[in-house]
Amino acid sequence: MGARLLCLCLLTALLGYYIYSPLPEDLAQPWTVMLTSASLRALGHLAEAAELLGLMNYMEGLRLFTALELVAPTSDENVTVADTELGSVPVRLFVPRRAPGGLRRAVVYFHGGGWCVGDAGMRGYDLMSRRISNEINAVVVSVNYRLAPPHRFPAQFEDAYSVTKFFLQSQVLSQYGVDPARVCVAGDSAGGNLAAAVAQQLVEDPEVKTKLRAQLLIYPALQVLDLDLPSYRDNAEKPMLPRSLMVRFWSEYFASDPALREAMASNRHVPAEAAQLLPLVNWSRWLPAEMRGAHAYASPAVGGAELARRYPGLLDPRASPLLAGEARLRRLPRTLVLTCEHDVLRDDGAMYAGRLRQAGVPVTHLHAKDAFHGAVTFLAGPLELAVAHRLLDACVGWLRENL
Asked: What 3-state DSSP class applies to 95?
């Protein structure tokens, strides 16, 4: 009996040690965040073990979380929901049921997941799209682009661009009763990256006659040149998206190459020829003082040219929209950038907001000091967070006023 009790106490202590992680005092609902983070960390450890045993790629293991969160495309009294294809790319389509009273708005949405996991049919994305569709009377096209592995950059961008360009055709907009002057691209995390890249490409495409009205970027990943920004330092071990996982996402976007991953982890993956691009991501210039804090700027160490030759996407603005020049940026539509304090990607969004503002683009930068990466999708179930509803309310409100 005594031995069993001792074992139970030890197991309880080990479980508590595994679950507990120190969190910032200002983080909303810390115990829910802690439990969620522990669950994802456990899944990550299982995926690592499976990869070491040669059973599957690490990202394929993480997709178990996606599978557990999938919901069927179920219509309700407010919105008709269907899985279909646009431009040969699978999408989940949300169309308001109520009489439009004129032409509707439209939002083309790209889910997050580091270009490797995630799905438009996950509960959080399904609920988010329903709310946007119902509350602002908008057609929402939520895109299921190809994932890495096996599909590498630029496959994800190509799918995102293909759907958007197809949807912007006048006959397609007319089919769904959409006002061509009220279309927005949006996305979170890797999806925010795709939304920003799509918006940039559209202004350069002479075949596209319909111009975007707005872009909504939720804690977007916008550059891979410098993975040692203050936000990467401040939040290296924070829940949901530690630095090591973001580095893995970035490297897998281009290839399953340990050499690339190791170079990114040490911030030595940038070739010498990228020197002229570094001012575009120089956080000492583009970040607000409160985000720079006491950190001292150091330019990324120069890496070997071989990685850049093998993976030219490292210097491609379609992968890193922050690398776009001002001439391109000034042609972009009005923008909302949402960033979270406890997020390695905080500074990417803040720098993009600064650069867009410098280029004369109307920008709203909403910064949530009590939130973390991924917060917006925690909309229901045992992991529901009040901060998710607050942030989504802010996004929907901005869309209502600007789209």
From this structure: strand
Cα distance between residue 305 and residue 302, in whole Å: 9
Per-residue confidence (pLDDT) for residue 303, from 0 to 100: 83
Active-site residues, by number, are: 189, 343, 373
Count of CB atoms situated within 10 Å of the CB of 324: 26
Burial degree of 399 (CB within 10 A; 0-12, 13-18, 19+)? buried
Q: Which of 184, 192, 191 is nearest to 120 (CA)?
A: 191
pLDDT for 259-294, tens place per residue?
A: 999 999 999 998 888 889 999 999 999 999 999 999
Residue range 371-383, pLDDT digits in tens: 999 999 998 887 7
Distance, CA of 124 to CA of 111 (rounded, Å): 10
* The Cα angle at residue 364 between residues 358 and 367, in degrees rounded to 5: 110
* Three-state secondary-structure class, residue 233: helix
Q: How many whole angstroms separate alpha carbon 122 and alpha carbon 67?
A: 8
**Rounded to an integer, what distance in angstroms lies between the CA atom of residue 214 and that of residue 207?**
19
For range 175-187, the mean pLDDT: 97
Dist. CA 19–CA 31, nearest whole Å: 10
The Cα–Cα gap between 218 and 216 comes to 6
SS3 sequence of 293-327: CCCCCCCCCECCHHHHHHCHHHHCCCCCHHHCCHH
Distances (CA, A) of 265 to 143, 251, 258: 30, 9, 10
Reported as a pLDDT band with limits 50, 70 and 90, residue 3 is low
Residues 6+ apart with CB under 8 A from 348: 220, 221, 222, 223, 229, 231, 322
